């Protein structure tokens, strides 16, 4: 076993997600987006630290020029991971679209716009008061129950539905 774990290839990732439910595809995309945000924030902080070293006149000129080599390497490594994760999100998007669904990007709050539960939904169901993630809104549940109760009114008076 190697000392460093290597990431799964893009081809193997695409194969691995083929049988996942759509909800899981969106969940994985959200997880990757969250990771990208953390890595970008980390890179920003590392760069600020490098810049502070370079502008610190109490350090020797050679130390300022060199900056912090470890931080610079970490930024480069993070950028590689960020690009890989962006590629994975694109693979998830392609998989949803391959199934005939429509991809819904995450909004600024980190929540996915539209439906993760129904790949054919374009987000209009949420605006119409219908839930799309495998659960019903109170209003939709009420409508369905009322519809079923209305059907029961037409049932035979002799029998009882269980």
From TrEMBL:
GO terms for biological process: proteasome regulatory particle assembly. Residues 97-108 have a biased composition (Basic and acidic residues). One of its GO terms (molecular function) is protein-macromolecule adaptor activity. Keywords: Coiled coil. The keyword Acyltransferase does not apply. InterPro entries: TMA17 (IPR038966). Residues 152-162 have a biased composition (Acidic residues). Residues 22-49 form a coiled coil. Residues 97-162 are annotated as: Disordered. This is Uncharacterized protein. It comes from Capronia coronata CBS 617.96.
